[in-house]
Amino acid sequence: MQTELPALANLQEAAATLRQQGSVLVLLVSRSDCAYCREVRLHYLLPLARSEAGRPWLIRELESDQVSSLRQLDGSSVSVKDWLKRMHVNFFPTVLFLDAAMQPVAEPLRGLDQAGFYGAYLEQRLQQAAAAKGR
Question: φ and ψ at 11, to 5 degrees?
Fold first, then answer.
């Protein structure tokens, strides 16, 4: 059984795929030592990724402590730390919902809800992102 999501290291490539597919990037920002990140990956995003065909999203993961830089839309390189700061990510896990311009199309989903509502929160953000994409 697959336990990893495809990694994100090149925003240019992701943007091209998003434009081609007309989809939204669902990006798990994680750390390799984060048990909650693993939970979100295994129980929520991997099942979603398996059903990705025909869906309006592209699911990727950025392990923030394993990748040092990202290729930006203009081809330049930016440190992951600086990019996360720009995206207001300071908590793990955080799931971002981004368009091809790497702009948010739904509110980030931060942390993991231990009360059992995470799936509903994720579905709400996916609907919000799909509606924003359709504008």
Answer: -70, -30
Strand, helix or coil for residue 96: strand
Contacting residues for 65 by C-beta, under 8 A, at least 6 apart: 31, 32, 33
Predicted structure pTM score: 0.92
One-letter amino acid of 65 = D
Structure tokens at 75: 């081809």
Residue 94, helix vs strand vs coil: strand
Q: pLDDT tens for residues 65-96? A: 999 999 999 999 999 999 999 999 999 999 99
Q: Which residue has the tokens 């923030």?
A: 64
Side chain identity at 128, as an amino acid letter? Answer: Q
Each residue of 118-135: pLDDT tens digit?
Answer: 999 999 999 999 888 765
Report CA-CA distances (Å) from 80 to 33, 43, 63, 113, 130.
17, 25, 10, 26, 26
